[in-house]
Amino acid sequence: MPEGTQAEQIFIYDLALPADFAPRNQDGEVGEHRLARIDEVARWIEEGAMTVDASLATLDCLLRRRWIDEEACAGIEALFTPPVLG
After folding, report:
1. Shortest CA distance to 32 belongs to which of 20, 50, 17?
2. For residues 44 and 51, what is the distance between their CA atoms, to the nearest angstrom?
3. Which of 11, 22, 48, 56 is the most exposed place for a label (fewest CB within 10 A)?
């Protein structure tokens, strides 16, 4: 069943972690954690293998760090434009 339309704010933080850090899912919120190359992550986003929220947060990170360029994300600027209410 489709989720429908949602109005949400997603807060994204960069967090420096030790190289040997291994995340653990403790509340069931996350399906799994993976260490992957940028090309793999981009493919997952394109294939719809990630949730919308995870895809947006990941694209934000990839763009801010300049690991991909804006041409790879045509139309993404619309996501950062506040909606017109009324």
Report:
1. 50
2. 10
3. 11
CB 68 within 8 A of CB 62: yes
- C-alpha triplet 8, 5, 27: angle, nearest 5°: 55
pLDDT in tens, 8-31: 788 888 888 998 998 888 888 777
Residues 50, 32: contact at Cβ < 8 Å?
A: no
DSSP string over 26-85: -SS--S------HHHHHHHHHHT-S-HHHHHHHHHHHHHTTSS-GGGGTTGGGGGSPPPP
DSSP state of 20: T
First to last CA, the chain: 28
pTM for the complete prediction?
0.69
